[in-house]
Structures
1.
Amino acid sequence: MSRNAEFLRQSAVIAVDEVHRGKLDKAMRNYRVAVNRMVDQQFTDWEALRQQAAAVKDHVLGHWPEMLEQFEQKITERGAIVLWAEDAEEAREHIKRIMSRHEARLVVKSKSMVTEEIELNELLESSGIQVIESDLGELIVQLCGEKPYHIVTPAMHKSKEEISVLFQQKLGTPPTDDAAELTMAARAHLRQVYVTADVGITGANFLLADEGAIAVTENEGNARLTMGCPKVHVVVAGMEKMLPRMADLALFWPILASSGTGQQLTSYNSIVRGPRQANESDGPETMYVILLDNGRSHMYSDPRASEALRCIRCGACLNACPVFKTVGGHTYKTTYQGPIGSVITPHLRNMKDWQHLSHASTLCGACTSVCPVAIDLHGLLLENRRQATQEQADDAFWRFAMRGWSFGMRCRWRMEWGRRLYRWLGWLMPIPQAIRRSVPRLPAKSFAEQWRSKEKSSSGDTP
Amino acid sequence: MGGKVRCFIPCLVDQVMPEIGFAMIRILRHLGYSVEYDPAQTCCGQPGFNAGHWKESRQVACHCLDVFNSGDGPIVSPSGSCTSMMRHHYRELFEGHPRASDAARVGGQVVEFAEFIQREGRLDDLRGHYAGTVGVHKSCHAYRELGLRELPMALLRGIDGCELVEPEGEPVCCGFGGTFFVKFPPIAQSMGRSRLLSFTALQASVLVVNDPGCVMQLRQAAQREELPVKVLHTLEFLDLAMFPREAVSEPQR
């Protein structure tokens, strides 16, 4: 089944799932209230901040190679090992080698979408290494055997009740639907893991060029323990996570927290400048930073799509998207869901298999209006559609249909005959019932035809 | 008072819902404008543009330029979406094209109905009466691409007797999306239903919508779901409230 057909099939099922919609509506409503309050309280001119953040990220893209080198040099000076990965496979090879070098048996991980992108958990498990997610939402989806549902809130689709049953089964937790108790149960489960794990793997929300440091944003303290307890810390980060200066966090931390979760700042923000230094008493002995390209430099070479490299993965566009709310995160079958996922996946993977996602948007522009780095998301979806057509990566039926449309629409009488044909013979045409029911019975006479006869009979200016 | 205006009648109005076009003409004439309409016009080219087929879109848009390029004066449109297409997206579509200047000229003359009324300072001249709770759905392209924001509400301020309601928060898309509703019918229908339910929850018996695409989408959704709400284009609603007629004076069943 093609990716498009699979998407269509699954969306048809989930679009009418009222329970699913109910859960999402509730989550989104809470999110929206929190975000609006935070944006109002925290920023005097949100629009100006968006433009400023966009300008900082554009500056990064303008000086990308230099900043990456500066980052590498600075962090290497303090003993970290920087590894470059052109694609997912190369990143996986790096990680395999690190695991065997350190004889890793147990790995603890904090939340990182880029490790989803390279399918790290599958790799580790197939090599006989146990890997445990330490972010509560990630732990929930891992215990369910699912993929993250949303780039920021991976278990958004799970109710408290479902999580309670899951924890009873998998962690032996006594029955409860108290969120705090469930959280404590997960925490108790994880504490042992931090101190016994051989390797901790995290992502990075930002790479700081001037300091040669990584910054990690979180709310549970789990990333801090993941980085701090095991002897080896592996960072996997997309190359686009760069910021020019540590001082830029003064802007990016608050906008990420506001747009991501409606917080002033997230509860924990860590800056890591390397492994344990000679004068320090704790921290990992060895630190690796794997910088992943995996299609990013390909996107960089596209003058329009490169704008999407500004993305800080806050998830605001997913939460604003009425299509996401209808189909949910799993239907996309991508690492990154929602509008940003539909924009970048065809560039990161390939146009042919993934261009259908660029069409799975009404171009309502809600995503663009909330993006904290002012990415023209719906404009880029439109651009993807154009590219797909140009590369003939779209489906042949639509090429044919659009030619017919253009032929019919360039001339009044051809358009009139198009309507008449549908009126008379539409019932014979192979049009799905669902589409038929979205179009009313067409009138016998068009506006133009009625106008002509009315003007003829009245030939005056009376209404 | 008044002057000459040209009408842009979107393909969806021309071929599917002509009533919307006649409502616009009645209102414009009532306000004293002399209305011109050239039946040669067809479509602005947006369906092809949005589907990524720019070559085909340009062919249709060129026909539109042929129709409007010779005349002068404002081109009033009952659709924010077509207005945005011609005003904003023609720039991209005709970049480096021999007809770029025609596109800029015509695009610069197109004005959405509410924008036109506001620009002319005639908002308070749309006087009428309608009794009932009226939902106002602000269409996305008019709201976000033309930045009309509160204008759809202001346009109805001269109609007394009715209470205007809209769900809390930013306007949410109805699920039409042009080719979207053909490519992904289940998603489109679910979105339409969900948007309608947010208005029926407010006891709206009439839903006023300022774009023909959204009118069709929501009207069909109301019919499919058998929801007790009558979906009207803003112009049809104004027409109804300003010029009460026997046959349609009681739209609430």
2.
Amino acid sequence: MINLTPTELSAIGLSLKVAIGVATAVLFPSVLLGWLMARREFPGKILLESLVHAPLVVPPVVTGYLLLMTFGKQGWLGKHLGMELAFSWEGAVLASSIVALPLAVRSVRMAISLVDRRLEETALTLGRSPVWIFLHITLPLAWPGVLGGVLLAFSRSLGEFGATITFAGNIEGVTQTLPLAIFTALQMPGGENQALRLTIFSLILCILSLIISEVLTRKTIHSYEVKDRHFS
Amino acid sequence: MKLKIDIFHKQGPFVLDTNLLLEGSSIGIYGHSGSGKSTLLRCIAGLLRPSVGLIELNNETLFDSDCRVWVPPHKRRIGMVFQDAQLFPHWSVRKNLKSGKAKRTELPYTEEQVINLLQIAPLLSRSVQDLSGGEKQRISLARTLLSYPRLLLMDEPLSAMDARLKSRILPFLDRIHRELAIPTLIVSHDLSEILQLSDRLILLKEGHVAAYGTLDSVVAHDEMAELIQEKDLNQIIGHQLRGRDTTPDFYHERKISH
């Protein structure tokens, strides 16, 4: 049995807390953005797509710095917020969410694109409104993809480093997630053992989250079959 | 039913330009692939917005580009049956049947009537995935009927079926028209289906109305000679023999020569 130090326990707990926060935070925007990109044509669509996907190519440190300029104590939005996001665990959630959002949006967009448009058209001719159709036809059929996207964001946030350290800092017990704790351990003389233990935990968490993603996706598909039998 | 369609729609190189006043209870739309049959139905259903024009159903404006009137498809009460049944795969047969929104307070027919008419009672306990093509299409028809449309559009409802299945479904379509009294517009590239189900016919050619009128008058139209297929000749002659024989001579000549 590995005995974990309070620092390690705190890093693992904080990583999970931030990852759950990210999964919750990206759910609604990823569904909205994924639907917009898959189903709607509007002026500025290419610009919106580029902005959403920018964190995939922009260095995470740049993302963190931009967040600091926006939401920092003296940031143009931060000074009106009444709460300090920078250097807090909520800030770590925001930074990780921005970095993980494109992955979730891509997955949701793909899932919605795969839903046969003719089903939506059929529902329209049956007298159902676009909102009803989205909630009862499109979203349930795209749900495995939505879930997959959210869990991908969860997994991505477990590995987030650059944007978090720039925007939320590396404060033990407050914003020091697993990658930051590994980085700190590697900076200390004789910290290799701690870094190795945290690396193993990091790998276990990432693989577990991917397994859960797969199980949940299969469960969702299975639940359709059960529901179908139940109604019939 | 009184349906006025005066529309112009351009989609790439294709142009649909129709000006029609349709009166009758069962109208067929016939033409080759790419003649604009489905586009016309989609414009009427509201799934496609014409470039310019006017669509009125029973004196209610559904689309008027001049007055900027556009009634969205879910508010038109126009049902549409597609080539593929388009059943919602994540729902049961029963839930599919209940997915239509009935906007009428006084219903002209009951759910039981529809179930009996289409003989789908044994299918209600089945899963959508377990249905055959013909069964799916009957459920699709029932679902559309239970949304209580004031006009029923059918876009090649039988084209995905083999001849045996077609012969089983055709009587159901005929009964919908006769027993439930819903005005119907049926698109097909198979003239025999139209002859069995319609009392008037629109002949579409390259996005334009080449002819419109009773079956006899359109079948006798010159443009039909180019469109008619060999397999339809028997049907036409059979149809004419059942009624007044106005079959043009060239049909008889072609029939005799084969």
3.
Amino acid sequence: MTKPKLKFDPVAQEYFDNPYEIYKRMRDEAPIYYDEDEDFYALTRHEDVAAALKDTDSFSSSRGCDLSMVRTGEVPQRSIIFMDPPDHRHMRSLLNKAFTPRAIQSQHATVVELVEHYLSKVDPDNFDVVQDFSGPFPVEVITRMAGVPEDFRQQVRHWIDTSLQREPGQIDLSETAMQANIDSAVYYYGLVQERRENPQDDMINRLIAAEIPGEHGELRKLDDIEITGFLTLLGGAGAETVTKLVGSAVVEFARHPEQWQKLLDDRSKIPDAVEELLRYVGPVQYNVRYSIKDVELPSGTVPANKPVFLMGAAANRDPRAFDNAETFDIERDRSQAQNLGLGYGIHSCLGAALARMESAIALDHLLDFMPRYEVDFDGLERVHMQNVAGYHHVPVKVLR
Amino acid sequence: MTQKVVVDFGLCESNGVCMGIIPEVFDLDDEDYLHILQDEVTPENEHQIREAVRQCPRQAISIADE
């Protein structure tokens, strides 16, 4: 019997339902995958993805980071995720000191307060971990840090959800998704204008005051569009990612109760559990780059001028890099290979320390709140989104 | 020929992974500045330094020939 032809379709219903099946086939059968229909490449083995993430000279972000953007060939808005060195370095240096593991400790009490607040409101007999808990709390943390007024903090999350949404078969943004992008940009733009008038001590004002080297080396300020882009990115990256990681965590621990028991017995294993979740069910599936030249990788050659999917989520389950890669094991030897769940190299997650802290605090409180629980697996609903995966609905009942 | 640890401070974001692997070589101070306490790569520390190079999420550490 011959296998069906290997086809990776980033917007197929079956891919949204289970990305890991196709990843295995791609790693084994086509490590340098080429899609004739859509004219792109995809890397799935750990050594190839890690090498490509490090090699910004060959794999450029400057045309965008999703297939729809990269293949238009248009220059995207000036956002840090669409930059190569040296521009990227200048932008990143404006905020990175606010996100170091030490600096992020100042958010610890806020995260605890929000986690306790949202958990206190749920019905233990029947609640939705994503809608009632892991959706609302991370967006509050990042938008507070950024300086978004309270009334609009949850709205930020809805804009992001809508803008990332893709119907099966649809690579480009829908009109609804486009509109959500426009609405959030208009909102942030107005907020920047307002902060210029009435400064506060938040990231918006830090960005307003910041200076970066311009085209000819002279220092210049950021314009309102650049600041708007930065804020949009922070809101997006800081909200829906932890939302999905925590939602997937509850599902995986329900499937592997012995792993949950290990955490109940020893809370010091929580940080390792967060790392394993990032490896096993990390929300970010891939980032798209554009090859500026022919590139030799361990598994073969990627030709110049193509969109290339760097599939970190596939690499994170590569048995060539991790023993028993398809097994969820919070006690695994983490030094075996680099976990790509938060990226690697210059574009690696700016908020990594915040994401880890939020996830660890959430798990710690969930262990208290629901030492024994069951997930209604029939009620699980996965998201259909560009480059992130996870659940939209995770119905849970706490057992007593 | 000796080998030395080099850190690109423009890339470093004080994640402290290197310090976790080999605190005798890498130290983060209270202000989040990374200090290299001993920059020479020796047979004793080489394995751990290479591990720090690999695990740095920013790819900010390298080993250079002097």
4.
Amino acid sequence: MTYIAKPKIAHPSLPKNELGLTTRDYEGAVSTLCAGCGHDSVTAALIQAVFDLDIEPHMLAKISGIGCSSKTPTYFVSQAHGFNSVHGRMPSVTTGANAANREMTYIGVSGDGDSLSIGVGQFVHAIRRNLNMCYMIENNGVYGLTKGQFSASADIGSKPKKGMPNQQEPIDPASSALALGATYIARSFSGDKEQLVPLIKGAIMHSGFSLVDIISPCVTFNDHEGSTKSYAHTREFYHHVSNIDYIHPSKEIKASYDEGEAMPIHLHGGDTIVLRKLNRDYDPTSRADAFKFLRDRFNAGEVITGLLYVNEDRAEMHELMGNTDTPLSQLPYEGLQPGNDELKKLQNRYR
Amino acid sequence: MATINDVVIKIATVNGTGSASANGLMRKAIFRMGIPVVGKNYFPSNIQGLPTWYEIRVTGDGYHARADRVDVMVAMNAQTYAKDMEEVAPGGWLIYDSTWPRSKLLDREDIVVIGVPLSRMCNETFEGARARILMKNIAYVGVLAALLDVDLDIIKELLEETFASKPHLIESNMQAIGLGYDYAREHFPCPLEKRVEKMDETKGHIVIDGNTAAGLGAMYAGATVGAWYPITPSTSLMDAFRTFCARYRVEPETGKRTYAIIQAEDELAAIGMVLGASWNGARSFTSTSGPGISLMSEFIGLAYYAEIPAVIYNVQRTGPSTGMPTRTQQCDLISCAYASHGDTKHVLLFPGDPEECFYMSPMAFDFAERLQTPVMVLTDLDIGMNDWMIPELEWDESYVPDRGKIYDADDLEKIEKFCRYLDVDGDGIPYRTLPGVHPKGAYFTRGSGHNKYGGYTEDSDEYQEVIDRLLVKWETARAMVPEAEIRYSKFNKAAILTLGSTDGACKEALDLLAEQNIGLNYCRVKAFPFTDAVREFIEQHDVVYVVEQNRDAQLRTLLISDLDADQTKLVSVLHYNGMPVHAAFVVDRVRSEIAKGRAA
């Protein structure tokens, strides 16, 4: 990976968001991933999402671990603060960062190796805390940087370029997250920007832990015939179970939807997402039903996409801890210690 | 002739029976008589049912270490009775519960055995199994009070303070004290030849453990994020921080907290959280012990290379591996000094007692932020969990946290371009920015190769420039860390050099050796890297006894690696059985080295 700055020449007719910024202002360095890598499409969707949400670039923290996916924070919003940490440990760094400053937006970008093998413990516990973050898994079923070993999300029977097909049970991040109590779970496909952008926006605006699991094919090591994470396979087997429209609080709800099949969901920050169910059997507000549906379809080899589960009622980490609204990093020191007289007083118990 | 205020009392009980408060009562009563005390816990890695001991050294001379003997043993645990009896010094006393007969085989001619029917008396006086067990402990305090001549009024005063909200307990506890006290006075000549007598040596002092003092120090230092994973013997440090925060860190208007304590899923996550929080501008810390350091090492290397502040308390315990979790050692010096793969080295602070645990806490946060690097405070179980008499803590109200070199929004407005790792001032410390402050402050934090501008690099020269600059920072740290405690006389050609909790035993050993006309100089290092004064101190002597509590002479190794010290001068005195070292051990070893032909 080399660091290539992207020339900043914006076309005058590019649309501007409420901050007066164009999508160019949300770009990062030139990607050094393989041509056609699904991750670059995810980056493009991310840029669109944060542009649409009018997020001030410096109020965004983009945090990652190690791997191809974890390189991507370099490729978006160069004026946001990036932290490329150690393998599998993005969630803990994000937890600490968020603990220090609850006002910023946290996007963690991870991969299936980073999150489901070396980092599975931290993935699990970030969910348990209902950490307020957007957790993206760019899921391609393989380790790219070390040249094509299977990851824990590889499906049974999926064929590698060389060697035997995978026989181990895959870990599905979405149904795992559901079992663990995540409060916003979406899945999409890097090749479906139209669906992905609103899902990311909803994930960012959701108060609590949001998972966006994105099938993002590896063109170099896992895009061949027989792979279940290839572009061709994903296109054939993926089904939208729901679509969402993200609605900015300042905008009138205009999205048209059929009464019986659409559901407005009001997010904590005042935003609304309108969920359009495309499958009558599916209820994304019921954990038990969603789990059964997901597992059944997963076992049938289908890739179910859309907003799979949402729960706006659970408190996020700071609320659970009863923390002050002011970011802890901005509290003036004077209020953080009770002074010498109190120190004298409290020592009476040690006599 | 009576020995006044120089007696060691050891109380053997079963853990989980509530003896800790009785033992604390005894220790406090003696302290309030104005007599310096040392309190040591020797406890199992267990919750209930295994042997545990509490040792009170009454030391009118004000020594800090444990003694090498037991004068009065309170043998309340049948399981360890034989061993406990064996431990009593000739001429000493053993108190046991005579409710049940004692094996005739277990006897010693050279000690006085005092039987008190504690269980019987308590069973006759108190109702309920739990109360009887608890009161039995209080009753032996009564026995000790009679035998040692401890002031009953002071015991009463302490009980009144403890049970201010439950007055009926004051009465029942005093009743239990009376049972033991009266029985002892009736049946045995009281007081013993070794006893206590009021003096005036504890005014302005407190008795506290190091973990409590460190937790208090972290709160006063302005720490707002604590992330940790429970591990003996460091747990009570974060517990103390939590207790003090619950009292002083809740906004009165809203009831909301101005701190976050996160119990992590493991130590890897704990240090990751600390780095995330520090990176984002909070004063953040973790507390752990040796196994936790092993798990944190990868992240510690990231913090070193990406230059992220972090404060890590390591309350050392006996290793290797799980080792003996409830025993003490100074065995993580090397693993902390060089934690993580690659070329890394870390600033370490070595408090010698709870007082320094408190004062070194704000210092650790200041250094971590000033130097933008992890700072580890290395205490041990002996400091962390035992009771030390120290001068009352004072807080300097003029203290302002040193947040180090940070460009704020105004600074960023003025500069053309911010580059994260430029050595602007020539001290090896670059300027950093905090996220969420200004768009011009954005940079990419990474553990991968980077150049001085903060960009990713695989260029040899660019890479090397940065890691060479970190060495400049290392020398800045050397000039910044606290100076060693040095006692120097030009007449002495030999010296003792030590660190941390070994201080007490060494200073007492210096006194004992002086009585034998062996004069030694003294140096207690307080930090790594070692200061120039430590280098000079070693150069000034022919022989330096390096006293430390580990098997592999880790302090000596660090002296050689960091100062290039002449290793032929450095003679190791090593104590590593898990018990805190005492002066007699140091004296013996130094004397035997002298006998081997090394000039003193």
